[in-house]
Specification:
This protein is an alpha+beta fold. The chain is 48% helix and 18% strand. It has a two-stranded antiparallel sheet with strand order 1-2.
């Protein structure tokens, strides 16, 4: 594995975690949204990630067999959660039905905060791996200069 491959792996993780963090913040911002453009309450979103090849087809043919096993992470998609809506009795709410029930998204703020902390730690770990790769590259350059 060369330095650029290490940077590519760290960068793919940073990009995926950034997307996940954006989705979490969107969920928290819409935790009490009862009306969307699609009609009905906001649906909680989650991110699906998968491992992916880092090398381009040219790189594949030129790299060693060991490097072919290296994989990064990509976001496969953002999907809506299928949890049922939470119903609350609020007869004076403009979106209340004839029984006075209002449907809210089933978003647990504590769960979202926990996910946010996990994503932030993962983001920091990826940033640290990029930083370590850069430091190794600089040290190798200094050694080569004598």
């Amino acid at each position: 594995m060369n330095f650029f491959t290490a940077l590519d792996i760290g960068a793919s993780g940073l990009k995926a975690q950034r997307t996940y963090l954006n989705v979490i913040s969107m969920n928290m911002a819409n935790a009490r949204t009862t009306r969307t453009e699609d009609g009905g309450p906001y649906r909680r979103k989650s991110v699906q990630m998968e491992s992916s090849q880092l090398l381009s087809p040219f790189d594949k043919s030129m790299s060693q067999e060991m490097n072919r096993q290296l994989r990064g992470v990509t976001v496969r998609g953002v999907v809506s959660d299928s949890r049922p809506f939470r119903e609350v009795f609020e007869p004076n709410h403009p979106d209340a039905d004839e029984k006075g029930m209002v449907k809210y998204p089933d978003i647990n703020v504590v769960e979202e905060m926990t996910n946010m902390i996990t994503v932030m730690r993962s983001y920091e770990a990826n940033a640290q791996s990029v930083q370590a790769s850069k430091q190794m590259f600089n040290k190798a350059t200094q050694i080569a200069q004598g």
